[in-house]
Inverse folding.
C-alpha cells in the first residue's frame, strides 16, 4: 500500500546514527546480538560508506580504533559481542583511556528476558567493568533511545578532555522495529557545539608578561596541542618570542625539527638542561607523568613558575604547583597569545635558546657516531637510524615495546621531520602489542601514506594473529620492523641493574618472524647485517604486501631505561 510506513530495526537505527556522525569503519568481531547491525551494513550501509573490519581478536580491534583516532583526530569505533567479546576489548580501550584518545566501544547485552538467568555470555555487568577505563557509559534497552544515546556518547568522547566511552545496547533494542520517520537522527552540527570559548584578556596578559620577563623560559608541548590541532600556532608563537620547546611523547610532531626552537621529545640532553634550569614553564596540554619525571626534583626545580593550560580543570596543578592556571582549548589560547604578543616587536634570538640548540646539535652528533657502528649483532641504535633514514617524510610511525621504544624516542627527531598526527605510541599505559593493529588502523585511515611500525620481539608476538587481517585487507607499504634480541628487554634491563643479573622469564627462544609472516601471506625477511637493513626495507616496500622485517639486534640497556631506573620508575 502507498501509505504503508517503512519499518526499521535497531540495527538499522544504530548504523543510520553512526553514518550521520561520519563513521567510516567499525573494528571488531561479530556476535549473535549484532546480527541486525551487520545486516543493515550488508543491505545498505556499505553503499552509504560505512562497513566493518573483521579482526582476529577484539583487543586488536580496539587498538585499531585507537590508531584511527590518533591519526584522524576523530573517534575510532570498536565493538565486541556480549561477555567475552566485551572482556577482550578492555586492554585496547584501557590503552586509549590512558592516552586521552576518543574511542567508542559498542557492546550488546543479552535480551532482557534472560536477565540474571545464567544464559550464555550473560550475567556480566559490562557497564561497571568499563567504568574505570571510560569517560562515560550508556546502556540502551529500547530502540527509541538509540539516537539520543549515540549523540550522547559522541558528545562525551570528543567534548572537553577526549577519552573512550561505552555504548551498551540490549538485544531487545536491536530486535525491535519502529517507523523510520519516527526517530530524529541529526548530524553533529545540529546537537553539539564546535566553537571554543575565548580566555579573559587579563589571563592572557599575565601569561605573556611572565614569559617575556623570564630569563630562561621553556614550552612543554603535549597531547593537548595535538588534539586541538594547534601545531601551527605553537610554532609561530615559539619562534616569535624565541622560546625553546620540549614535546612530550604524545606531543611528538607538534613542533618539528624544521624549527630552530625544538629541543626534542625527551628531558635527556638539551631537554634535561632546559628542564633543570628553566625559570618559567609554559605547559600546553601535558601531564607531568613518569616520562617527565613527575615534575619533581632533581629533573625540575620547585622554584620554577608555571603557566599551565589544559582543557581539563582536573589536570591543572597535578604533580607540580602552578603560577597561572588556564582551562582552555590550546589552539584558542595560542591564537590569543599571538594576537597580544604581536603588539610588540619580534624578539631576537635568546642566548638561552642558542645554548640549548648547540647542546642539542652535539647530542645528535654523539648519537650518530654510536649509531653508525657496523657491529654484529646489530646495535639497536643502528637499526633505528637506518629505519629513520629510509622512512618517507610524511610516513606514519608506530612505536611498540619497552627498550626498543626508548631507542626510537631518543632519535625520533634527529633525521626527517615528524609531522603532527603521525607518531603513535601507547605511552601512558605502556601497553605492548600495539604494532600490528595500530598499523592496520593507521593504514586504513591514511591509505596513501607509508606506515612503519617498530616493535620488540616480545611485544610483536602479542597480536601477531592480526597479520592475517592486514593481508586480507590488501594493505601495502605497511612495514613492521622487529628489533629481535630474544628477550623481554626492559625487564631484563631491570634485572641486570637492580637484581644482580638474576635473570628469570626474560630470555625468549629463537623465532623466525619472517617465516611466520610469510605463512600469514606477508612479505618476510630476516636481517643480520646492518648494511642490509635499508635494502630489506626497500624490498618490503616494493612487495605490495604487508611486510615483516626481523632484525637481529644485540641486547643492551638504552640510556632512557637507565634514566627511568634512576627515577625509580622501572
Amino acid at each position: 500500500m502507498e501509505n504503508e510506513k517503512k519499518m526499521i530495526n535497531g540495527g538499522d537505527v544504530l548504523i543510520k546514527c553512526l553514518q550521520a556522525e561520519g563513521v567510516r569503519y567499525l573494528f571488531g568481531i561479530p556476535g549473535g546480538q549484532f546480527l541486525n547491525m551487520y545486516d543493515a551494513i550488508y543491505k545498505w550501509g556499505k553503499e552509504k560508506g560505512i562497513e566493518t573490519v573483521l579482526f582476529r581478536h577484539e583487543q586488536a580491534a580496539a587498538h585499531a580504533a585507537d590508531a584511527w583516532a590518533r591519526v584522524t583526530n576523530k573517534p575510532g569505533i570498536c565493538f565486541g559481542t556480549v561477555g567475552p567479546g566485551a572482556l577482550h576489548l578492555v586492554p585496547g580501550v584501557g590503552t586509549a583511556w590512558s592516552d586521552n584518545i576518543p574511542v567508542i566501544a559498542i557492546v550488546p547485552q543479552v535480551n532482557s528476558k534472560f536477565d540474571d538467568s545464567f544464559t550464555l555470555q550473560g550475567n556480566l555487568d559490562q557497564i561497571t567493568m568499563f567504568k574505570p577505563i571510560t569517560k562515560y557509559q550508556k546502556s540502551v534497552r529500547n530502540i527509541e533511545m538509540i539516537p539520543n544515546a549515540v549523540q550522547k556518547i559522541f558528545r562525551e568522547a570528543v567534548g572537553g578532555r577526549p577519552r573512550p566511552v561505552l555504548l551498551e545496547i540490549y538485544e531487545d533494542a536491536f530486535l525491535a522495529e519502529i517507523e523510520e520517520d519516527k526517530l530524529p537522527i541529526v548530524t553533529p552540527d545540529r546537537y553539539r557545539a564546535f566553537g571554543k570559548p575565548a580566555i579573559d584578556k587579563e589571563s592572557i596578559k599575565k601569561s605573556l608578561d611572565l614569559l617575556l620577563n623570564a630569563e630562561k623560559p621553556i614550552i612543554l608541548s603535549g597531547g593537548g596541542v595535538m588534539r586541538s590541532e594547534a601545531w601551527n600556532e605553537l610554532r609561530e608563537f615559539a619562534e616569535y618570542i624565541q622560546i625553546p620547546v620540549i614535546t612530550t611523547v604524545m606531543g611528538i610532531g607538534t613542533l618539528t625539527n624544521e624549527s630552530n626552537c625544538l629541543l626534542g621529545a625527551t628531558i635527556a640532553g638539551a631537554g634535561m638542561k632546559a628542564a633543570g634550569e628553566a625559570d618559567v614553564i609554559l605547559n600546553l596540554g601535558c601531564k607531568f607523568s613518569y616520562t617527565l619525571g613527575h615534575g619533581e626534583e632533581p629533573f625540575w626545580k620547585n622554584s620554577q613558575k608555571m603557566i599551565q593550560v589544559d582543557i581539563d580543570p582536573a589536570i591543572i596543578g597535578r604533580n607540580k604547583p602552578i603560577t597561572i592556571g588556564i582551562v582552555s582549548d590550546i589552539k584558542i589560547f595560542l591564537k590569543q597569545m599571538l594576537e597580544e604578543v604581536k603588539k610588540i616587536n619580534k624578539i631576537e634570538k635568546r642566548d638561552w635558546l642558542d645554548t640549548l640548540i648547540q647542546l642539542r646539535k652535539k647530542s645528535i652528533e654523539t648519537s650518530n657516531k654510536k649509531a653508525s657502528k657496523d657491529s654484529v649483532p646489530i646495535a639497536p641504535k643502528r637499526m633505528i637510524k637506518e629505519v629513520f633514514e629510509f622512512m618517507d617524510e610524511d610516513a606514519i610511525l608506530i612505536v611498540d615495546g619497552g627498550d626498543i621504544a626508548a631507542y626510537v624516542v631518543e632519535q625520533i627527531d634527529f633525521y626527517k621531520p615528524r609531522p603532527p598526527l603521525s607518531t603513535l605510541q601507547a605511552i601512558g599505559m605502556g601497553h605492548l602489542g600495539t604494532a600490528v593493529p595500530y598499523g592496520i588502523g593507521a593504514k586504513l585511515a591514511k591509505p596513501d601514506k607509508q606506515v612503519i611500525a617498530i616493535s620488540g620481539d616480545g611485544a610483536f608476538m602479542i597480536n601477531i594473529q592480526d597479520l592475517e587481517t592486514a593481508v586480507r585487507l590488501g594493505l601495502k607499504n605497511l612495514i613492521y620492523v622487529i628489533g629481535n634480541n630474544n628477550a623481554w628487554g626492559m625487564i631484563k634491563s631491570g634485572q641486570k641493574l637492580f637484581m644482580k643479573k638474576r635473570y628469570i622469564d626474560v630470555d625468549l627462544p629463537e623465532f623466525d618472524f619472517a617465516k611466520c609472516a610469510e605463512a600469514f601471506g606477508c612479505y618476510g625477511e630476516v636481517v643480520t647485517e646492518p648494511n642490509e637493513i635499508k635494502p630489506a626495507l626497500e624490498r618490503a616496500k616494493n612487495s605490495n604486501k604487508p611486510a615483516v622485517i626481523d632484525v637481529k639486534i644485540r641486547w643492551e640497556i638504552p640510556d632512557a631505561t637507565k634514566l627511568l631506573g634512576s627515577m625509580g620508575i622501572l
About this structure: Residues 122 and 366 are 59 Å apart (CA to CA). The longest strand covers residues 103-109. The mean pLDDT is 94. The radius of gyration is 25 Å.
